[in-house]
Amino acid sequence: MRAASNVAVHISPRVGRAIPRLLWGLLPLATIDVVLFVIPMVFMALFSFRFSEELLGLVGRWTVAHYVKVFTSEGIYLRILVKTIVIAVVATAACLLVGYPFAYFIANASRRWQSVLLTLVIMPFWTSYLLRVYAWTAILGDRGLINEALRFFGVTDQPLSFLLFNVFSEIVVFVYLYIPYTVLAIYASLEKMDRSLVLAAMDLGATPVQTFLRIVLPQTLPGVYASIVFVFIPILGEYVTPTLVGGMSGVLITNLLVNQIHALEFGFGAAIAFVMATFVLMLLLGLRRSVDLERLYVA
Amino acid sequence: MKDGHTAVQSLAQELREGQLTRREFFRTCARLGIGVMAASSVLRTLGGGTASAAALPGPLNILVWDDHFDEPELKDFVATTGVKVNTSLFDENADAYAKTKLVGGRQIDVVSGDALWGPRYYQSGLVDPLDLSQFTSAKELFPVFREISFWKVGTRSIMFPWSWAPIIPYYDPRYVTPFDSYEALFDPKYRRRIVMEKTPVDIMAQMGLVSGAKKPYQMTASEVKAAKEALIRLKPNILTFVEQSNQFVQYFVNGSAWIIANAHTGLDYRVKQAGGPLVKPVYPKEGYVGFLDGEMVVKNAAHRDAAMAWLDHKNQAKYVVLNFQKQLRALANEKAMKILQQDPKYADLVHATGYDQPDVALRMILKGPPPGEGLKMYIDAFNEAIAR
User: Per the UniProt record, which residue ranges are transmembrane (chain A) (predicted)?
Assistant: First the structure.
């Protein structure tokens, strides 16, 4: 403590004047953070603990009934939440499995080809998200591209109905939608990687697999973690994809939440959202323990 | 009418000289029985023939279903009154009700609603009943729609009636044996072949009919439980829920649906127009729900005059005819029906959709909000069924 006091005493007047200026500089950012993030979250938290006869009324009594309902209600909300997490994990893993080699390929291509390939990766963003999801019904449907091709080549005489309106089609569309984030995050890590280490490992007799596992992968882990954050978390909150291609078996937690909001059950809806948010927060804290967040965000 | 015209000219003169506000002008016109659009029109002429001279305060903010308006009447309205119309769409009555309750007349001037949702809006103090006699286009309505008892508040009506239709199953006879009961929907041979519109409350009401509920929009807890069990039983046969009923056509056309369980009448013609099979309607012996909808003017609407003018404008027969030709379901405007009956292309359709039998509209089990905690109970049951 004494040392700390001494440090405080020895702050130069110039630094002392700089601190208020720094705080003023942070004000716009802090304002945006408070207005767009903190205040809405506080209101949501209040709603989730309030029972009111009035629509969106905060005058009422305190209750934990909404949370009790999330964890009871025949277990449906917990079960669907777990299902949502499992589907998000599978889709994120699939994005990594497909996206990593592709990012590696781009990073090792010539500069000219890198520009072309990166443009192709971001090209889907030029069209509407809704259209991109909807297009898959034309690809996977009974009269879709795949079924028509299979029939044309005589592989099947009946359409393969399992291609659409189930968990399979949901995951396929998730992978399609989110793979650009995976590729871009891992590509950024690969670009920053010290390639002389790869050459050194090869010179010292490491096999390609050993080189990848011991040199490349550890250096690109921040990119992998970043892609998990950018892919896994948004999938947890997906509504449009399960609605359009998920069918009856692809119902996710947000579908149930939206139904509650339509029934004007804002308190219960907020409680479901907070349970999800708590899970995401725990995930981020877990990631923070396993990787330096600063490196992750830089990636 | 000549006297009315003279009166409105005199009133318009007072308006120009600042002795009357626009609101007073329209109110006085209304008291004299002069339609809002007629008043706007005269006002425009007197103002020098430009739309801006007669411009009502705007913009007009309407929260509506997408089949309640079309581009032609929007364009004409802007040209006639100078008022820009901001349209917001919704799918569920509860959604529109919540939005109206949250922002009221400050942000919404006109809102669409289904039959028994009207009284709920009125009881919550969200809308002002309308004196239909002050609308020129209301004279074109079937008399039965001017006197709907559950919309009546004294001599006024909560809604300006627009359209109606039974919600019934349709099937593709190439794959489905003709049926007359909801029970057929549960046949395992229709696994993943049924498509429904995602309207949780109405689906629960429909399942209530299946499980024997007498009043499907006022089910007791045990009836809701039975309806939930019916939905769970039906679930393996449901391919998907669609967000909007206009998506049904493609499912019949591309052959992925054999049965649409909750479509409004006219789907057979829309499917045929799109090159699909000749699908058949079913009027189940257990009964069927139906919608009868319209527009309401929100209480303390910021642009009330424009709202009144809009209702008078959009409900004119010439626009209703266009709407029928596009949507192929019955409407409340009798004059439009008579015009359509003269057209060989649409005469049969008028009958097939029930447009010429307006009394049927009031014999249906009409959509409405379940009372008290009912809405919550219905949605909980729906969620429990689809998440199982």
Answer: 22-49, 80-104, 116-140, 160-190, 266-287
B50-87: per-residue pLDDT in tens? 333 346 788 999 999 989 999 999 999 999 999 999 99
pLDDT digits (tens, 9 = 90+) for B281-290: 999 999 999 9
CATH superfamily of A64-298: MetI-like (1.10.3720.10)
DSSP secondary structure letter of residue B56: P
Distance (Å, whole) CA A279 – CA B43: 62
Q: Tell me if A174 sits within 8 A of A91, measured CB to CB.
A: yes
Which residue among B94, B241, B387 sits closest to A76, beta carbon to beta carbon?
B387
**Residue B46 vs residue B308, higher pLDDT:** B308
What ranges do the domains of chain A cover? 1-48, 64-298
B378 is in which domain, residue-wise? Answer: 165-290+364-386
Residue A256 with chain B: CB contacts under 8 Å: 383, 386-387
Residue B340 has pLDDT above 60, yes or no: yes
The tokens for A31 are: 């304002």
In this prediction, residue B2 has a pLDDT band, given cuts at 50, 70 and 90, of very low
User: Which residues of chain B are within 8 Å of residue A143 when distances are taken between CB atoms?
Assistant: 254-256
d(Cα B239, Cα A169) in Å, to the nearest integer?
A: 13
Q: Is the ipTM of this complex over 0.90?
A: no
Q: In chain B, which residue's Cα lies nearest the Cα of A83?
A: B387
- Answer yes or no: do B233 and B246 share one domain: yes
pLDDT digits (tens, 9 = 90+) for B147-169: 999 999 999 999 999 999 999 99
Alpha-carbon distances of A176 from A215, B38, B39, B204, B317, rounded to whole Å: 29, 56, 57, 35, 48
Are A74 and B384 inside 8 Å of each other by CB? yes
Which region, left, alpha or beta, applies to residue A247 given φ > 0 means left and ψ of -120 to 50 means alpha? left
Across the interface, do A76 and B383 touch by the CB < 8 Å criterion?
A: yes
